[in-house]
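#struct-pred
JK: can someone run the complex with magnesium ion? inputs below
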Amino acid sequence: MEEVLEKFQIQGDFQSVNIIENGLINSTYLVTTTSNKYIVQKINTFVFTNPVELMENIQSSTSFLDQKKEKTLNIIQSKKGESLIKHKDEYWRAFDFIDGSTTHRKASNIELVRECGKTLAHFHKSFIDFPVEKLHTTIPNFHNTQIIFQNFVKGLDNSDIKLKEECKVEINYILENGQKCNRIQNLILEGKLDKRVCHNDPKISNILFDKSGKSICMIDLDTIMPGIILNDFSDAIRTICVSENEEESDLEKVNFKLDYFEEFTKEYLNINAENLNSTEIENLVFSVEIIFLEQGIRFLQDYLNENKYYKTSYRKQNLVRSRNQLHLAKQNEKKSEKMNNIIRNCFN
Ligand code: GN1
Ligand code: MG
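RT: done, structure tokens with the ligand placed:
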């Protein structure tokens, strides 16, 4: 680590390094020096095959926010003046640690939910005049649920028979619901959903809070790229409007919280409804059901593929995560009428 740090324009002498267990993809460390604290990350190049373009996206989006005086991540440059360093075939980058900041793995109260709704809406609104075509698509088809479903089905042919037997119920559920995976993609093809600057991974632990529970800014900007606003809206709700996080194996405890959904949506729409078109508004509720299905597929696919994508600490973790997400997809289907009423009320 000290060899890596040597290459960055870091102030003070190195004192300590602590692993931060946040995120299923990159490796994250909190580095303390005699004068400052930094977040230093090793980029997972199995997932992010083009770290240079990824950092260009982060660079252009954070400097845009900076110019608008919006709080965002501050990239620490390398001694050569670059935002990324290569060290022994690994890619590293660093940010200032924001003093007094913290993250949450689930929303423990409704105030936090409101803060999340505001933060995401504000993020989208801030980028409304950013030229979206300037961002690289660092992971093609990242939220293309149609392709995610098709790849899942193709992958089944090569999966281990015993694993498939173990996941029979989940696989069947996904196959039965596959048709739904086309709807948003079809709307895109019809030109009804605009490409916008999206975070693409706005889960609750990617929002930074201060100790009093006020949000500071969105973090983990690795997937900032052109996207569909519905995916951000729903992906935030996926981890914010639930009673337990995606790691919970006791499904009796896992519930979609309509009261949280209502508050999140009210706050979001209050700030950003003016920038949504009618197709986006009509599909807000459907997008939530589909994101749970999408994430359930992604976790299950990784389980069947022997856990190469998401970090795991035990063998069945991706199966547990998938069951959790599919359970919520089913719940959502049943709650959609109530959710649509909530949206309607937001416009009355
Ligand atoms: C990954 O890196 P992290 O943990 O913020 C994943 C998201 C998933 C999420 C599930 C690039 O996000 O898409 O929704 O895990 N990021 C990537 O927790 O695949
Ligand atoms: Mg990430």
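RT: quick notes.
Residues 23-25, 47, 201, 203, 206, 220, 223, 246, 295 surround GN1 (ligand 1) (CB under 6 Å).
DSSP finds twelve helices and eleven strands in the chain.
JK: thanks, will look after standup
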